[in-house]
Amino acid sequence: MGSRFSIPLDIQEIDALSRETELTVPQLNSFYRRFNRLSRGEPMLTKDDLLREQDLITNPLCDRILHAFFANGRSALTFAEFARQLAVFRRSKRPSSREAKLRFLFSMLDVGGSGFVSAAEMTAFLMLLLGDSVSDEQLGSISLRCLSEADDDGDNRVTFEEFAKALGTVEIEEQMCVAALNG
């Protein structure tokens, strides 16, 4: 019965992963083929493996995306972890989807893994986004404004809770979606 799947998980694991991620079995099979291609058939996917993905390496936020994918000191991902990470970018009505997207985005800013976004981390992130389109002075001003608007307790750093509150009205569920995951 499990032979109809190319994923090396039993049918109960596939069903559980499908329910957890809201990805269909055909989507999981497609992701497994991509995982297998990128990992060259190995059971774990590394950062170097992901750097074979052309769309990723041309993204100015590539390093931050990789940092978020491999948070908590992980050096490699299993297929199930890979699927869970990709599922963050699926359109969903679940409240947990918004939180997952916010946590992914927060981890892109909190490169030190401290649980806070510092002024330096905010500036570095904005520099990646804005590039040479603003002066260093403008960049510093934008960074300080972003930080001060989100920093509720005045400690010059932003917690996840403050970050989530600051983005309270932003339609992040729509902004952080990949079309291929919503078909």
TrEMBL record:
Keyword Oxidoreductase assigned: no
Q: Which residues form the EF-hand domain?
A: 97-132, 138-173
Cite a single GO MF annotation: calcium ion binding
One Gene Ontology term, aspect cellular component = plasma membrane
* PROSITE patterns in the cross-refs: EF_HAND_1, EF_HAND_2
GO BP field: protein transport
Q: What SMART domains does the record tag this protein with?
A: EFh
Which CDD domains does this one have? EFh
Pfam families per the UniProt record, alphabetical: EF-hand_7
Highest taxon, organism lineage? Eukaryota
Location comes to: Cell membrane; Cytoplasm; Nucleus
Q: Its principal location?
A: membrane
User: Mind listing the UniProt keywords for this protein, alphabetically?
Assistant: Calcium, Cell membrane, Cytoplasm, Lipoprotein, Membrane, Metal-binding, Myristate, Nucleus, Phosphoprotein, Protein transport, Repeat, Transport
| Claim: Cell cycle is one of the keywords in the record | no
Regarding protein family, the annotation reads:
Belongs to the calcineurin regulatory subunit family. CHP subfamily.
Q: What is this protein called?
A: EF-hand domain-containing protein
> What species is this protein from?
Macrostomum lignano
Lineage, broadest ranks: Eukaryota, Metazoa, Spiralia, Lophotrochozoa, Platyhelminthes
